Amino acid sequence: MSRRTDTLPNVRRKILEDGDVGVLCDYFRAPDRETAVAVVLSESGLFDAAKSRPDIEAIDLKGIDPVVMLGKLVTLLSGPSYEEMAMTGDIQIDHIPGPELLTREDGDVCVIELDVLVRDTLADATDAALSDVAFIWVNTGEFLDGRDTWFEADEARPAMDELAALARRARIVGQMLYCMICP
Fold first, then answer.
1. Which of 85, 115, 135, 167 is the S-S candidate for 153 at Cβ 3.0 to 4.6 Å?
2. pLDDT digits over 16-33, tens only?
3. How far apart are CA 157 and CA 138, in angstroms?
């Protein structure tokens, strides 16, 4: 049984209040929710399943959380204009539907399913769009926390390209995107 993000108080609080410290996130596609949970909780784990099963594909993006950081990327790709964001001084993520929790939140690991809007926005992202938003995204507070220099856009592009490619392949075969979180 799945639950909406607002029922993820522990993970959400850690991501939003603690600056994502210690939260590890891996993204993957799977045929359905049951398979997503089963491969994460299996003894061999997500990445071994991805190596042995053509219907599972995983990418290692440890520091990109599915609520704030991914929400900001999706907003930059689909949301208000840069002028509107500049006027508010922030990248709002309130309009991004929250992911659904597929496992217990209080375990060693939890699995969430990302909303179809997130998958499709990433899948639709062109190379030009990703280039346009890379510098802004990688220089949000979540990335800069503890740094005294700005990131370059090309530092973000490999992760952005991997997420977009994963989303495209998921959509082509009718799969959803999932995230394994180790709080």
1. 135
2. 454 444 578 999 999 999
3. 9
